[in-house]
Amino acid sequence: GQNIDQPTEMTATEGAIVQINCTYQTSGFNGLFWYQQHAGEAPTFLSYNVLDGLEEKGRFSSFLSRSKGYSYLLLKELQMKDSASYLCAVSLNGNAGNMLTFGGGTRLMVKP
Amino acid sequence: DSGVTQTPKHLITATGQRVTLRCSPRSGDLSVYWYQQSLDQGLQFLIHYYNGEERAKGNILERFSAQQFPDLHSELNLSSLELGDSALYFCASSATGGVNQPQHFGDGTRLSIL
After folding, report:
1. pLDDT < 70 stretches in chain B
2. A100 inside 8 A of chain B by CB
3. Which pLDDT score, from 0 to 100, does residue A94 have?
4. B4: closest chain A residue by CA
5. Which residue, A72, A78, A100, B114, has most beta carbons within 10 Å?
6. What are the chain B neighbours of A33 within 8 Å (beta carbons)?
7. Which of A99, A101, A102, A107 to mutate to test the interface with B (most CBs of B within 10 A)?
8. Number of Cβ pairs closer than 8 Å across A and B?
9. Residue B109's pLDDT is what?
10. B35 Cβ neighbours under 8 A, 6+ residues apart
C-alpha cells in the first residue's frame, strides 16, 4: 500500500522559518508535490521535486531525498496569510494514467 | 482563480438519491481528475480521464461513475448515496496528464447527505 506521513499540526511565529516534513513509502514514484490549502478552499500548487535536492521559489523551498523517502517544505519570513494546511502528494503511475496520493496534510498556524 | 470550474458549489440531498457533479477544465487542458476530501480520509484520488478516455482509477466505489465528454468537461455521478458520501469533491486538470505536471484544482462541490 501507499503510506505518506506528515505532522498533523504545527505552530510558528510571524517572521520566523518553519519546516514541514513528509515521509513516504509508495510502490512507484514519479515525483513529489506540495500544495497549500486554506480552509474550505481549493489546493493550490506550490512545488514539484523529482530529483534529490533543494528547489527554491521565493519564500518557499522544497527538498527531496529519494533514498530516504523524505521531503520537506521550508517556509521563510512567515506571514499570517501562510496559515493553511500543507499537503504532500506523491505522483504515481496508474496503468496509463497518473494519480496523486496525498498525505493527511499539516495544518500550520502562524501567530503574531 | 485556477481556471477550473465546478458546479454546483453546494448540494444537499438525501440517502438513496443520485447526483451529478460537473467540471470544466482549464482552457487547453486535456486531463481531468476527481478527488474526494472528507475530514477523516483526507484528499483521496478517484479517477483520471485524458481526452475522453479513462486512464487511472483509485478507490472509487462502484456506486460512483465518471465520464469526460468531447468538449472535455467531465461529470462525476454518485448514486445510492449514503451518509458517508458527505464530502468535498474536487476536480483538477492538467495539460496532458504527464506525471510532472501540476494539477490545478477547482473550488470543489460540497455534498451533504441528510
Report:
1. none
2. yes
3. 58
4. A42
5. A100
6. 102-103
7. A99
8. 75
9. 97
10. B43, B44, B45, B46, B89, B90, B91, B92, B105
Q: How far apart are CA A25 and CA A19, in angstroms?
A: 20
Helix and strand tally (H, E) in chain B?
A: 0, 11
Burial degree of A90 (CB within 10 A; 0-12, 13-18, 19+): buried
d(CA A64, CA A112): 30
Report chain B's terminal Cα–Cα distance, integer Å: 31
pLDDT tens profile A40-92: 899 999 999 999 999 999 999 999 999 999 999 999 999 999 999 999 999 98
Query: Do B98 and A42 lie within an 8 Å CB cutoff?
Result: no
Q: Give the amino acid at A59.
A: R
B68: CB partners within 8 A, 6+ apart: B32, B49, B50, B51, B52, B53, B74
DSSP 8-state class, residue B102: P
Sign of the CA dihedral A15, A104, A96, B27? negative
Q: Measured between alpha carbons, how far is B85 from B53 in angstroms, rounded to an integer? A: 25
